[in-house]
Design brief:
alpha+beta; 11% strand; globular
Amino acid sequence: MHNKSILEHFNSINGRQNVAKGRNRTQEPDTMENAMTTTNAIARSIPIVCPEPEWQTRCELSAVYHLLKKYRLTDLTNQWHAARVPGEKAMLTHCYGLFNEEVTASNLIKVGFDGSNMNPENGEPNPSATEIAKLFFEARPEINSVMHIHTKAIMGVSAQTTGVQPYSQAFLMIGGAEQIGYTRYEFECTDDFLSGLLKAAHNKSMIVEAFHGAFVLGRTVGEAFFRSFYLDQACAVQLEVQSGGAAGAALMTLGQPEIDRHLADMAKSDWYGYDGALEWKACLRCVDREAPTYRA
């Protein structure tokens, strides 16, 4: 969960130290106050007032949370997603502790790159979200959305030394192996972990973290969702194929010349961009029908 952070986060809610040993039983746990701020975020009924570009970004990021639930790509409250606020040194993410279906455009939290919470009434963000998203946003100006997902399929493949393999069209949809970096798992967001993560992300759009999940980058919110969806699908198919192989099935795979040819043909397409733009319009129509409160 990358929680340099999470302990510091809970300890700092009231500015007091949470000492694990000898803690006074009569002292109210910091987690109780965090639960109260989470409840406040859920209960927010007044739409937030902000510039139109920020509102649009809020709506799109909120839609992502609902789409992940629809496609069963969630992990209780333990994933985070972030979007750059247009024209500002700030990002949007959700209140740590909310389920995906509880996220709305108005209860997202705006956090400055300096760490300042500009919507404290909406609770507190996952501290690793603000730290890691800031890392990518500052290092990669073209990146406007970061998703951190840990589905079972991605976690399963993340434990394989060979990484994501060419067993499906989904592998091609995300740009093939050249778009995927790898890093080792660390529980804490140490400086070494962050520098290694940034190195793994050089010229990549997805970084698989061993035993944990993936960080997915996009120029738009829709592109980050598109890549997350197909990364999960590529990993799920890989596990299915490997299961068949273990049962005795003869397996096929795409060779590198074939991969290169397909990717070149895909890149030349004049009607499909492999950036999620086409699907994203349909995705927004879907959440407008099925979960219209995402725009609240």
